[in-house]
Amino acid sequence: MKILVREIPPRSAWALEQAGIHPLLAQLYAARGVQSVQELDDGLARLIAPTEMLGLSAAATLLADAIAADKTLCIVADYDCDGATACAVGIRGLRLLGAKHVSYIVPDRVVDGYGLTSPISERVKASGADVLITVDNGIASFEGVATARALGLQVLVTDHHLPASRDGQIMLPEADVIVNPNQPGCTFASKSIAGVGVMFYVLLALRAELRQRGVFPAATQPKLDALLPLVALGTVADVVKLDANNRRLVAQGLKRVRALMLPTGLASLFVAAGRDAQVATTFDFGFALGPRINAAGRLSDMTLGIECLLTDDAARGLELAKALDGINRERREIEGSMREQALAVAESLFDDNEEAPPAICVFDPDFHEGVVGIVASRIKDKLHRPTFVFAQSRAPGREHELKGSGRSIPGFHLRDALDLVAKRHPGVLLRFGGHAMAAGCTIAVENFDAFEQGLSQVAREWLDAATLMRRLDTDGPLKPEYRRVELVDALHKEVWGQGFAPPTFSEEVEVLSQRLVGEKHLALKLKHQGQPVDGIWFGHTEPLPARVKLAFRLDADAWNGIRRVRFLVEAAQAEL
Q: Taking the complete model, does pTM exceed 0.85, yes or no?
């Protein structure tokens, strides 16, 4: 691990400080590319205009016409938190805007697989729907869209994933309307918007269309800001880059959550997770609520998660939240044992004195396909290599297939790598898709070795020593006057996440004492710039030298009713 310090553009930091931003926050923002205080304005008026997103006008017209004709709308969701929140936002928003008949279908991870398939289109038609709306999927669902159109359904695809390509040509399904900022010709600046964000923008455009038609005046139009807590949850949980537009969506959602202006089921999730909504943070979304929603799609039925986000009944909400919490506990148990097994397989691929191979592919017949993505992430974190973990499909008639989930490291675009493997080894990849840092694919059992060799070859070509070196970008030393509880609280209230990393400081400290707690965490007494401070390194058991360079985040814990600053250690680098 190499601990590095981010550069702080002095002009940007000075400009932010002159505009009234706290000196520490000014440095943190400047180091993350913020140049002016206007970029920190999280007001809704600062959101990118819906008119910038290709297809929104046509989508608004389609939906407004459908509502006027009293048509039945059916949303086809994805089975992760982004898909679940997008579905809930879509249903709540469409009902607010006058749709009387709105239902949803969410695919089963095992039986249906990912996206809009032909059988799902047939189920939508059989349900009596007239309009099929995808959320967080559909951009690569060629057969599913074609089937739906052939059955007489109107199809609106809303998605944020990268479209498929063949021989260098982008391919799009023949839907009635496609809304996706990553489709050709779309100038919408926030290419990292989550699926739930895309659906929220569809609703903004629909409201504008209905307003123009005179359905309601601007003064009494339905307020869509009630949906922002769900938009914020899905955006953070999907680990999309928090660019300025996404940060505004998340900030607005957090403000409403902290004011307890949030859906009943979401409030119940905070209770089940043991978190306080009044001091909610992006950490709560990403590591407490998001995993509980995701657990339903991994091990059970995402209908549970969507129903929790839709209910306005407190008792029902708490019942569903507790059920999701129980499923998440089961997920953690399965993941724990599977992670150990998968890591053992991965580490068997190289000797102790060798570097890990450029890419890691792991499969075992006992693996559970619902947690392959989480386990891939854990192995990637430990070995710092692009990693795919595969499980055998349990879908009837598809037992010969392996379903894989991959996670990547900076500098290795996973979906593009899969595309190159598919071109070089025709027929090996049955299906694939995803993003730069996370992707999924399906292969035949007998093609596992061919896939592993193909991915490793691409990794050898694309990755160099600098990319393969584990590095941690930090914000450098922490001034002792900033080691205050109120400043820690202020930092926690800010919007941090993917692409806008939470503050991590680094400097040499003296280790006064250290001991294991809970058999797997290292509790520390440190001397930081001449003053004592507590620290803890979760999941680390190896002792530290007397003097060491630490990378750490700031936290505040309570002891005998007194809150004190402590360091959450992320990494250590012995000073030579």
A: yes
